[in-house]
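Q: I have two molecules that I believe assemble together. Could you output structure tokens for the complex as a whole instead of separate predictions?
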Amino acid sequence: MSQWKDSGKLGLILLVSPLALWLALFIVLPHIDMVLISLRERVAARQYAFSWGNYTEFFTEPLYWRTFLRTAVMSILATGLTLLIAFPVSFYIAKMLRGRLKAALFILCLIPFWVSELVRTYGWMILLRETGLFSSLLQWMGLVDQPVEMLYNDVAIMVGLVYTSMLFMVVPLVTTLESLDDSLIEAAYDLGGNHLEVIRDVVIPHAMPGIVSGCIVVFMLTLGNYLTPTLLGGKDSLWFTEQIYTQFITRFNWEQGSAFGMLLLVLSSVIVWCGLKLSRQSFTRVMT
Amino acid sequence: MIPSIPSSRFFRRTYAAYVALFFVYLILPLAVVATFAFNDSLFPSLPWNGGTLDWFVGQKEPALGIFYDGELLESILVSFWVAVAVTILSISLATCNAFLFERHDFIGKGFLYMMMLTPLVIPGVILGVSILIFSSSIANGLEDNYDLELELLRPGLPLVILGQFAFITTIATLVISARLRRFDRSLEEAALNLGASNFAVIWTVTLPYLRPALIGAGIVSFLMSFENFNTTLMLVGSDAPLTIAMFDRLREGSTPVLNAVSVLLMVGSATLALISLFVQKPKSD
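A: Yes, here they are, computed for all two components at once.
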């Protein structure tokens, strides 16, 4: 812009420095510090030495790596389920509806997520617990003759995780599906495609950016979730973030906790990276 | 498939039923929480003992309502002030970022933009612990070398604010950048031609245009801060924000006063959501 007066280097520096400061102080340096702490070991009071011990501890203690693996597998499962449930709904909103009803249903999808995750999880607790609504309903219908505890198991955790993630899948899916021209679908049918072929060869390829960004965000949030597994899974939920919390807050073993934190961060980065590579998307494009 | 493609009646019915079921699934937990806020029972469960407002206005134990529950009220206030601070910080930095990325070209821009997005892929718990570690390192260093004791850097509300600021800024930046990108720069040129200074142009032309995005981003930041749990959990000290206080009560098992708080939260969020929809609605532009 030639007309801007005095739009020289100074303006740029003034704009870059807050961002740089923020990045350095809150993102880059804290994580470097975390790596350094994870690679040390206390040898005496206030005396530390370099050590891989915290990482070898992870691989030799079955509880740790099993929890890690379990968290990863369940997160992938939750992501897949969320996609399966959300895709038909998103397609319905994006392609089958018009006008006011469409806008209304889309907003209805968003509403639950303006409310705290804590409240949503609380709702599931009221529904699923022994004295809860589902249990009472089953008794009333005569299907069971005593209260059933549906809370504190893996299914309950999964229900909660999928529920909490729904928004982050529906929004990108609806947005990409809306941009798909109806005439492309019509043409595919005219050319003799059946439902399955049209979905596989036309709809899904077009929706790929939305699917990828939805899956990445949902996976990340699920992996890093603490609230839902703790409340719906109870004591045996074995979620990796709980291990991190225990090491930091309960056992005050920051070295071990940092190593766990790094492992979780590496896992989530690797899976996000793989997702991007597999679908040939770029990080910047998917996130914005 | 789509309305213009003929499909069997059975298919259309099933599809619509599936979507209806999905919405029941979405609404059910919230409806249940809200309903039991009005049940005259000490536990948020059946049987239904008739309606009551005790969980809002009850004045004595055990039916202590939210408006008389000092601990919860205190935590709401804490959350409110934290959210205000986070919103102000995030929106200020996010506006700078938006101008930086939309208006300037410089070496390393792509890299910096990518770095700016990283908080989105760092799990909240890890963001929390990394900031906890770093601030403790600084605090310990100051204490050992200069004999300085900085309470600010120990777990507590200042750290909670900084921790939330670390990732909410990214989201606010995305919202504000999106609107700045659509701005017609000839309006600024016109103002410059008419003799306005750079500052006057930004203040009277660009910022008013950005106002809906600023308000929208502000509301989103406020809500995200108010409802944040993961990052806050790691950085919290003795003053508990609402989500932490509710979490503790939930684990102990609590009276329906938590349902009453939830109803208030729903009403608050819905109001803010409506405001943001209203503000972002395009009027004449």
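A: One point stands out. The mean pLDDT of chain B is 84.
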